[in-house]
Amino acid sequence: MAPQEKNRNIQTSSMRRVDSESDMSVASESSSKSYRDYRVRKSNLIGMVNWTHVLGTYLPQLFIAGIGILLALIFHQVMTDLMTKQQIDSTDLSPANLIELTVATLVSVKDLVARQISMILSLRKEAIFSPAVEGTFVALVIMAWIITMDNPVFLLSFSTFKAPQSWRATHDQIIEMMRRQNCFTEESIAFMKRLLVRSGTGQNTAWPPGIIQCLEDGKKTDRSIEASRKEAETIIFDIVEKAMKKANVKPKDIDVLVINCSLFSPTPSLCATVITHFGMRGDILSYNLSGMGCGASLLALDLAKNMLQRRRRGGRALVVSTEIITPNLYHGNERAFLLQNILFRCGGAAMVLSNKWTDGPRAWFKLLHTVRVQGTSEDAYQCVFEAEDKDGHRGVRLSKEIVKVAGKTMEKNMTTLGPYVLPLSEQAKVVVTLAVRFVMKTLNKLFKTKKFPAVKVYVPDFKRGIDHFCIHAGGRAVIDGIEKNMKLEHFHCEASRMALLNYGNTSSSSIWYELEYVMENQKNNPLKKGDRVLQVAFGSGFKCTSGVW
């Protein structure tokens, strides 16, 4: 939920638009509905409003105003008492009289506070301050308590990596890079070419310099640790610097640092690299997450949120999500491993979070909910698996069960998330169909018959509670499948398709390229103040993560 209009300074047009048959920025003729069709009357939304979040958004400003009112009431009471006792002359505005008036007022305030404290300590029933002053004080205490209980987390800024032109390659250049590895058979090259055509990626996506340099005559692919570090530092330093600049925070202001990168985990860690380069504080809480796949960004964000909310005085966190391609190019010929060579591209995103209530008014978004679901079956564990093929070449194997496993984990995730974001009308339909289904099953068992029809459970319409969807750009089939299962319109998946087209699958950072597109480029369903944004991602293990802003 965006607490304020987009009055921030953002580099415009950072999401490059591409003219293509896949460009969804123009309304499709096949799209039968508009985003306006999914507006729910405010009266129907009352049941899903989190009033703690609503009050928490404005309480900090009311608290400051309340302190001013409290002080004004105290001084008004003192001035009235002094005038009643004729200790001051309100008509004499000479400097000497004003100084005498100020001193007398401050002394009287001091005496009143001392008497109030003495009264509290002695448990006397005499009231020193007026009822208005005491009532205001009690209201401020209640406000302060609500503020400390809510403890919201805000997104101050985020930034995504835009690769230089020297990193970018067309489809033909990608296939040529594969040929120049001198390890793939013609059958594998043809297979990767077919995958690339159907992948949904565009003709200008980014590859690391260590790999793309093989297109130059006389140069070989550099998969060394030095080349991998160079790719990581180029991406991470760029996005961290831009994110902190947008948020107007300095490296010393960061209290928590979380970096997720699944397949590249060097020593010293990437966290240590960032801390050293930017000169962050020595007591910063740093966490380096690896092996958690494309869904790790929301997991890292959830970890940062938990660490911030443990701090009584509030703080700021920096979350970095990226994947390093250089050391992870598969050099074998087993088809289950070849997809990673075609789909994944260079990318990264850095986010600055805060749970300081003073940062609320300038925040871009407010975090409402995060949900994570972990699959526990053997199929879920094996469907995205880093291993070696029969010839000893290391890569990531994708199982044929991945679509089935992803569907199950997403269903559980949406079931958990639904009560927090869906209006009561949608939740009621689910409850009714569940009750009818239970009754029908019971009647069939009771009468030992199948005459009573089986009732399908109602699939809630998430478009009634969510305005924008950022679905992990794991591939065209992933986006199409979620669009069909959730009954989304084309414009709901526009950001995901455009991110896949312009940047490819950038792993965990893809959902931030999509949010950037929603904020800066989407015209069919423009972002407005108060809109809710859902981010959904999948990761190895197998897990499904979601976050609502």
Counting helices, strands and paired strands, the structural category is alpha+beta
**Oligomeric organization of the protein chains:** single chain
Helix share, percent: 40-55%
Counting H and I runs of at least 4 residues, what is the number of helices?
A: 17
Q: What is the alpha-carbon Rg in Å?
A: 29 Å
Number of extended strands: 14
Mean pLDDT value: 82
Taken from the alpha-carbon principal axes, the silhouette is: globular
Largest sheet: 6 strands, mixed
Spatial order of the strands forming the largest sheet: 5-4-6-7-1-8
Poorly predicted regions:
3-31
Terminal CA distance: 5 Å
Q: Into which percentage range does the β-strand content fall?
A: 5-15%
Please write out the topology.
Elements: H1 42-45, H2 51-84, H3 95-122, H4 131-150, E1 154-160, E2 168-169, H5 171-179, H6 186-198, E3 205-206, H7 209-212, H8 225-247, E4 256-260, H9 270-278, E5 285-289, H10 296-309, E6 316-323, H11 335-343, E7 347-354, E8 365-366, E9 369-374, H12 378-382, E10 384-388, E11 394-398, H13 402-421, H14 424-446, E12 468-471, H15 476-485, H16 494-503, H17 510-520, E13 533-539, E14 543-548
